[in-house]
Amino acid sequence: MEAVFLQLLNGLDKGGAYALIALGLTLIFGTLGVVNFAHGATFMIGSFCAVTLQKLLTMSQKVRDESVTFFEAYKEVPYLEIWFGDTGRALIDWTVPLALLFSIPIMLAFGYIMERGLIQRFYKRTHAEQILVTFGLAIVLQELVKAYFGANPIPTPAPDIVSGSAHVGAWLGMSDAIVYPWWRLIYFLFAAILIGGVFAFLNMTTFGMVVRAGMADRETVGLIGIDIDKKFTIVFGIAAVVTGLAGVMYTPVLPPDYHIGMEFLVLSFVVVVVGGMGSLRGAVAAGFLLGILQSFASMTEVKSILPGIDQIIIYLVAVVILLVRPRGLMGREGVMED
Amino acid sequence: MSAILTVEGVNKNFSGLKALDDVNLSVEKGSVHAIIGPNGAGKSTFLNCLVGRLIPDTGTVLYYGKKPEGETLFGLPPHAINQKGISRVFQTPEVFEDLSIFENAMIPVMAHHDGSYKFNSWGGVVSRGEIVDNAEQILEDVGLIEKRNVHSGSLSRGDKRRLELAMCLAQDPELLLLDEPTAGMARADTNNTIDLLKKIGEERNITKVIIEHDMHVVFSLATRVSVLARGHVIAEGAPEEMKGDPRVQEAYLGGAHL
Amino acid sequence: MQMKDNILVAIFAAVILTMPIWAGAVGAGYPDLLQKFAIFGLFAIGFNILFGFTGYLSFGHAAFLGVGSYTAMWSFKLLSMNALPAVILATLLSGIFAAAIGFVALRRSGIYFSILTLAFAQMCYNLAYSVLTPVTMGETGLTLAADDPRIFGGAGVEAGGALPSPDFFGLSLSGYNGFYFAAIILVIGFYISVRLYRSSFGLMLLAVKSNQNRMNYTGLNTKPYLLSAFVISGMYAGLAGALMVVIDPLAGAERMQWTASGEVVLMTILGGVGTLLGPFIGAVTIKYFENIFSAFNDAVLNQIFDFLPDFIQVIWVPFASLFVGKGWHLTLGVLFMLVVIFLPGGAMEGFRLLKEKLFKKNEDAAETAKAGGTE
To answer: Where are the domains of chain A?
Structure first.
């Protein structure tokens, strides 16, 4: 029972990441009708916003290391620490949360440029061509990141205060042995809040209503005199921000490298397909479902019965869903059925 | 005369909206049966029910092709329906736009000749004498033989319709369904299409069901007319009878909100 | 089959088989590079039979490449070092794999098909790395070993303790021999693809790509056509995978990663999807420039751009170095995007446009000359 609960917890943060990425992908697909293979790269750019901010904050100067007395030793001390002392150190410690703010304008601009500069040329072209050009863009983005940041994963730790584990078991009156890293708990909560925010935005604002109407029937919305294209540029920006933030928050869980986007791209497409193309609720539900399934599949008890299942569970679920329920869990009729 | 298609008590709802409401209809073999009605009368839904693409909530559609007893087509894939002798012309002409006119004509002829699947990898297409002759013949019939090497994507809408009809004829169908065959055409193209359909009617005994709201087309071709309004068949008879029928006028005028 | 096609195949064969003679002139006169041309050319030609003829975009063809490689390796380990059984077995087994995967994946079309193939390929890759390690040797990769049984002879090691290398009935397949072996298979593969293209079967595939709806209402079940194309193109991939280990007896799981599937998509698009020669041209172009660009480094660049004023060189060289050496993929990505945006027909489309332009120019010139003559 406790093992099961722990796996459930383990699935939640991963599921949160899947859900956020799939949410962004679905927003883009559902509104603009574009199959975006550069979506994983968007996630990666988000992660590297955190890395960049870390680099900026830790820009340092060589200073004589006073603790070493028997020869002249130097150490790198960040300017922030020199200038502001403990406040500076705290700022550096809080890099990842700060990166959330830092990344929003960057991701907005990224989304805007990408949509205006490239994607809008491809609205009328085939899905295959959309896949191809965004695939090319993904290669370009990841190679640029590789050229600047190198090929190795770059650790960006969470703030010290949340570096330990939460005694989740004790809280819930279960065994004290159930502990769970604070940051991953935070990630889950963050994902839940962000998802809630996106849904609230879509359901409660006029803008959101237009977007939802556009997802349901683009032509009609165009006919009633709303310039839907302009709105969709903003949607693209929002999708980029949601995905970027998912990337920022994920850096303490998994140190990002240039390739992280490609891995998440495949997964996020699988999530979207399982959830149902064009269904936002489906994307979120499928994200959590697959995250949790994956973590259950990696239990030793399960693996001893079905060796290798943890490696393929997500894809297997996707294949089964596509065959028995082509529209996915919550897909609508008529979306991408040709 | 006997029926080729009978529709009995067909109902179809779309999330509470009644698209078809107790529709009864019988299409006689050899007739040209037009189904007319204002926009939103359920014509397209009806057509899709006829070919089994939509399954009605209640009621049956029976097809009497080459067999004496009727069969239902619900749930069959399009190619299986086609193999039973039903061909279909779409609102927007559906041809193989990336291929030449000749290649377009070859495909249905080969399909008719070879059956559903033949892995004929070594014989080049053009080496198949008899099939090539057949394909040329149907192009001749619709007057496209001179343009045989033209890319079909570059044709006018009227010529695409010709080609589409040629491809349907190549399969030697029992029943031909035409969904607004002259929609979006210029007057000259419309008249050409009507002439072609008349000519086909004279040469071959193919039953036709035409969904149409252009009265000119209907009265030039149809031997029988059913009027569909708000999911009901409100009147049925010979074209001349329908012309003066007050119910028809009301349905049309009412539908147009004049 | 028309005369024109026979001539095309004959010229193709002549150009390929004389490569060792003239490729040196363009800086490609190394056997291992020429082998790559042949192998990836074959892979791309096969991929085109699916994507180019039917329009079904598979993102999982690397799986068949991997199956081919592993099968050929096991043939070397268990049967003999003769390349022939290895190549035949690899083609057959990858065909069986393709039939199984295609049977399921082809129940959907469009993007769903792409994602299904991607999912299957990822499953194969993940399994090759984990539970299938006894078959694939996981991260280390499958290699020849001193204690391989090789029941049809050639067991153990050769004199001097070296591991045996693949042969063709005693003829060693290293160096240019290996190239000729691959090149002959490539020419056969090209010939088959031309015949398929011209056949009624090929016409059906093109019709599926053009308008599947009309195809269905022509009484044709498209499934068997698509599955045949999928299996054939999977067998080409398996054959290419087998040739890779014939040339270099080592099979690793990274060969099955989906980026490898992406590479063959790039090749096909760059050269011209749906054309006969395009995929091969794309494969050669990518492998050729990969070879050239990868060799550059900052020192070489500085040497090349030495003629520039220093202050420009300081800015230019680091910028240029982004695109060469390890950054070669960046160039590839940019090139690929440009092609998709501006020239979706790839190199073949480019050639056609160029030909039209030149032709027109000539005509114009002739016209003016004529006009000048009458004056």
So the answer is: 2-56+97-324
